[in-house]
Each structure stands twice: as C-alpha cells, then as structure tokens.
Design goal:
116 residues; mainly alpha; 434 Repressor (Amino-terminal Domain)
Length: 116
C-alpha cells in the first residue's frame, strides 16, 4: 500500500527542499539531531512540525521557517513565487547561482544587470 503525500503542506515543502539540495532523509535527520523516522513522518504525514524542529530543519536547508511555511510572499495564483524560487535554488549550478546573485545585486544597486 502506497502512502500519498498531501500537496502544498509543510511536509511536502520540506521534502522538496531536502531533495533539491540532494539530501537524504537520514542526512537531514542527522543535521537536525532527530531520527530518519521523524523526518519521514513529517514529510509524509504532514503533521504539525514543532516550532523548534521547524527552525532547525529550515537552518539545515539554508532557508527560513517563513519560506518553508510560505508565509513571506504574496499569493496571486495559490503558489508562492519566493517559495518556488528558493526550493529550486539548490538545483542551480554554482556558476548559475553566481549569475543570479550578480543580477540581483545589480538590480538592488539600481544598475542594469546587463551593464553591471
């Protein structure tokens, strides 16, 4: 019997962020000092993750708890633009990350990213 994962839950977002960073459940569990079963439970069962554990998971995934909860973004179509961006950041090559960072820094400095 296959368990289905509820869509758009904090558990799903943890799983997506973990996978996008190339981490196993065991590796994430070790980073936050819990068992693999705890990570699996929250990813699949979509239970309420205790705040202290959510903070440790977010830190291990190099994101904020707000990003995992998708609290920090304005929703227009039911999806989070910032959340989608950060979930996929880990999939970028180091060179692509530098390029994106360069573009964002140029924009924030008021320069055209094409001329910076």
């Amino acid at each position: 019997m296959t368990k289905s994962i509820k869509k758009d839950t904090v558990g799903t977002r943890i799983a997506l962020a973990r996978k996008s960073r190339g981490l196993t459940q065991s590796e994430l569990a070790s980073a936050v000092d819990v068992s693999r079963r705890v990570i699996a439970y929250y990813e699949i069962q979509a239970g309420r993750v205790p705040a202290d554990l959510l903070a440790r998971i977010a830190k291990a995934l190099s994101m904020s708890a707000d990003e995992l909860l998708e609290l920090n973004v304005e929703r227009t179509d039911g999806r989070s633009m910032d959340g989608r961006f950060f979930r996929n950041w880990g999939r970028l090559s180091d060179e692509d990350k530098r390029t994106v960072t360069h573009v964002v820094e140029a924009i924030l400095a008021g320069k055209s990213p094409l001329n910076a």
